[in-house]
Specification:
single chain, 3 helices, 5 strands
């Protein structure tokens, strides 16, 4: 029983820690063609359905979708990006891997 409790606590801590590294951002509205173009340039996967249109990319440079932008017609777009210190200022930047800063 102790092992199960410890496992549940560890799982919860890791899950919440991972969420803390993600950031939600808002960008101006854009149409499906504009998002599709930005998505293609970033090497992402574009999808569209009744709720709007999305692009997901491997912005951390590894497998898996780490950054997602969702837009609904006539509404602002929302982005979820990984990396706690990242604050991209455009949809294109939100979909791509952050450049390393030279020191």
């Amino acid at each position: 029983m102790r092992h199960l409790t410890a496992l549940l606590i560890l799982t919860g801590t890791l899950a919440l820690g991972g969420l803390a590294l993600a950031r939600d951002l808002t960008f101006p509205a854009m149409n499906a063609d504009a998002l599709k173009s930005a998505c293609t340039t970033a090497g992402g996967k574009f999808s569209q359905d009744a709720s709007g249109y999305d692009c997901g990319t491997d912005c951390k440079g590894g497998p898996g979708t780490d950054c997602v932008v969702h837009c609904a017609a006539g509404q602002k777009c929302t982005a979820q990006v990984s990396g706690g210190g990242r604050r991209p200022h455009s949809v294109a930047a939100a979909l791509t891997k952050a450049a390393r800063h030279a020191r």
